Amino acid sequence: MATHFDPSAAAPADSGIFGLPHSPDEAHVVLVPVPFEATTSYGGGTSEGPGAILHASRQVDLFDVETGRPYERGIALLPESEDLRAWNTRAKERAQLVIEAGGIHPGQPELQAAAADVNALCEKMNDAVYRTTKHWLSQGKRVGVVGGDHSISFGSIQAHAEKYPGLGVLHLDAHADLRNAYEGFTWSHASIMYNVVQRLPGVKSLVQVAIRDMSQEEHQLIEGSNGRVRAWFDSTLQQKQFDGVPWNRTVDEIVSQLPQQVYLSFDIDGLDPTLCPHTGTPVPGGLSFPQANALIAGVVRSGRTIVGFDLTEVAPDPEGSEWDGNVGARLLYKMIGWMLKSQRA
Fold this sequence. Notes:
About 40% of the residues lie in helices and about 15% in strands. It is an alpha/beta fold and about 350 residues long. Strands 2-1-3-8-7-4-5-6 form an eight-stranded parallel β-sheet, with helices on both faces.
């Protein structure tokens, strides 16, 4: 780190993530922005999530009373890929035809062609995220991916599962994301965890938290997974609290279902929507910020190691409020801090 850097000073407007001066080569934590939201089926804007988080991050104080000084290890956000931006624009155009029609219907080859185009562009995105994540992991870095919608997580989870076979995914989300090719899109944001479970044998277990919106088929997949997928429904979590069960005891139960190495996949809509009002598919309920932080802290308290993460579905307010980006940036810094702390434990 540059010797003149003052962590308590105001961050310049053109500084890096959290106002830090590190290059990716200098940093221990490399963040990959993925401005992609092709299959978003309700609200949009998550492709602007990385930019909103970067802007808000410069207001985050770098000393953290729980995790210490994560910034000292070095944190860098890669530049956004122009290719990803272009693929996103094209894929959104093609996807809109299918979404407006309510999905693919027999006898409508133009919809099938549009969905095929979207799937091909999503595969390009997956490959780019996978290759970028794998490259930085091979350099000894810890890697976090910042979306974008939740579909962008696949390449990152794939790369981490190859490096850390047998890892578990801790998935915070309002949605189970276990739909098979939702609306005809193989790589839909609503299908991310279906694809992880079906295509990534290196993922030993998937533990989902705060789920409160799912189809009957998704529930059946969870029930029929022989324990590989475990869901902590929001209704269950709320009932435990109503019964007076301390949150940290519930966290211990959740974490006990994870293996030693853990990947965090956090959709911001797993939080109470007052914390992320402009996310694409908000659902009443969810975790408070302190609860989410305590969940991550519980992984570290258990002696497990957080090996990587993604943070998705942060969408800035079209009217200019910075609340969504602010919450996203602060959750991101907590995730980084706990990840680094877990590796020293």
